[in-house]
Amino acid sequence: MHWITTFRAKLILTLFPVVVAVTVMALLMAERKFSANYRRLFDEQFEEHVAELTSARNKRFEALSTILQNMAAQPKVVEAIQKKDFKELSQLLRPQLETLAEERLLAEFPGLRENESNRGPLGRFPASNDRSRGFKGRDGRFPPGQKPYVDFIDAKGNFVGAPQQRTAAGLGLAREAEDHGDVRRKGGKMPWLGDRKFEQVLTEQEVGYFRVEQENRNDGRPTEQVREVFITPLRDSKDQKFVGAFVFGLPLTSLTERVLYEQTKRSDHGEIMSGIWVEDQLVSSTIPHEKREEVTTLMQQAFKHGERTHRELTVTMDGVRHQLLYRVLNPGSPFPLAAQLNLYSLAALDAEINELRWSVGGLALVALGMGLVVLLLVSRTLSGPVSELAEATRQIEQGNFAVRVPVCRRDELGMLAASFNQMAAGLALQEKYRSVLNAVADRAVAQQLIEQSGTLGGELRQVSMLFCDIRGFTAITEGMRPADVIEMLNEHMTALTDIAYEHGGIVDKFVGDLIMVLFGAPRSTGSDGLRAVQCAQAMLQRRGELNQTSKHSLEMGIGIATGAVVAGCMGSDQRLSYTVIGHRVNLASRLCSIAQPSEIVMDEETYSEARAIVKADPMPPMQLKGISEPVHPWRVSLCS
Prior knowledge:
The chain folds into 5 domains: 3-61 and 350-379, no CATH class; 73-251, no CATH class; 257-345, Beta-Lactamase (2-Layer Sandwich); 383-440, Helicase, Ruva Protein, domain 3; 453-637, Alpha-Beta Plaits, CATH 3.30.70.1230. The strands form 4 sheets. Strands 14, 15, 16, 17, 18, 19, 20 and 21 form an 8-stranded mixed sheet that branches. Strands 1-8-7-6-4-3 form a 6-stranded antiparallel sheet. The two termini are 62 Å apart. It is α+β, with helices and mostly antiparallel strands. Mean pLDDT is 78; it is low at 114-133 and 162-181. Helix 1 (7-72) packs antiparallel against helix 7. Helices cover 44% and strands 22% of the residues.
């Protein structure tokens, strides 16, 4: 016996998976809890970051909304955009908006002010050449990254800016004049409008996020930034006709990316890189350029598949797992969706988990080694009797019910051996009963008798009965030896029985040279009449084939009737037989008696089911013995 099949090996192979499974489950639970705690730290920082952005946006809206709407209602402003005099419009609004930006940024970034005593009241709009504000530097410029974004949009949704602020033809950039700084964005029609009209989108003042460019004062190279913008509609004061809008944008008021990056870089968990996703682009100063393209692709796929609110993604970059979290800042906005995203490396987490795995794996190996020693000691007293039982079980499986195992112990294994011997004896007796039952009853009936504890109650069923007997049997067998008669009948009945089973029939009985087959009892196979006719055709065809090779050439006639009959086990307490009785059974027998050689005669009920597959000829109405009413049979010959 191969070692792997021994009882000792099975004990070992049973214990080891249990120990491994428990170890793996404990390790997975520890990893999950460890990872959850680890990620919770980043999630809390991310949620705090988003909450700060949301709170700042709400405060800005409360502080600026009414003021910007009042600006939009100024008659000169409306008149300038109606005349498409964007130069005048810029001269009217830009100084007011810059002053408003300075006062708002002073409130939000108090650390940037230089001279708080010079800060004017919110809502007061001095001239543009007033350089005494406390927020701007001595050169009259805003601090780096704090320059407000101002632009104008006509009624068709085109960014227009002021004429003297346009760049060379074809570049499509609306930029501010040199003395106002260098904040710009792509010009032309807003691409997200599609076929919608701008006035249908901008029904009221909206808050959105735009991606802008600002030139670096040192090298002149543009850097991308994000501005939180207020888009205020401009309407004619007389008929409220939509004439355009002006855009006022401020930098995001939250913990800056660089500060967050530097703070977390010094921690043991690794740095947090962040950015803003807006207008299908990523704007970030902390995410490396080689990773931005992959992050951009991931964000595009996430928004493409409907994840338009928030999501967490685990991705692999440069062989290192990273966690990407994002949350949309302006859900439901008609303008481009913007999302705050954080990206951090899971390298530290993976390293600690790897160390945990090695520690737990070492303990598991020690436990497995100790378990193996104990198993080897215990299995010596168990493997012998169990091996004998295993071998005896294989003998039972192969049909040797005479096998017995020695009972040499009084413990549980001894009791098991005695029970096994009793079971083998019982199986031998049951197999003997089954063999006898299968020999004297149809196998389907025998199986149902076994399943229903030996009884099949009488019931009314719709059944098709097929009777088939040999024509001229007495003349054929006259003068034959009894052994030859039995041999001929066995060959004949075996072939017909196989065909009956192939078509779902139940062999009810053999009466001399006659075989009776049921379709629909004890179980219906569906379309029982059709199956009976198909079976009859196959029987005739098979008999014709046997006539070519058999010693004796036989001819058969077949009768089929369909109707309600009583089906069940009938007989005495000592001897039962499953059969059917009723008027239709007698009819099938009479139809068989009038069938000529190689003919199938059926009643009208059977023909109504089988008319789709056979062509039958009606026979004259006739009065059959034992049948009170005239019968209208149909005849099918083998050639049909």
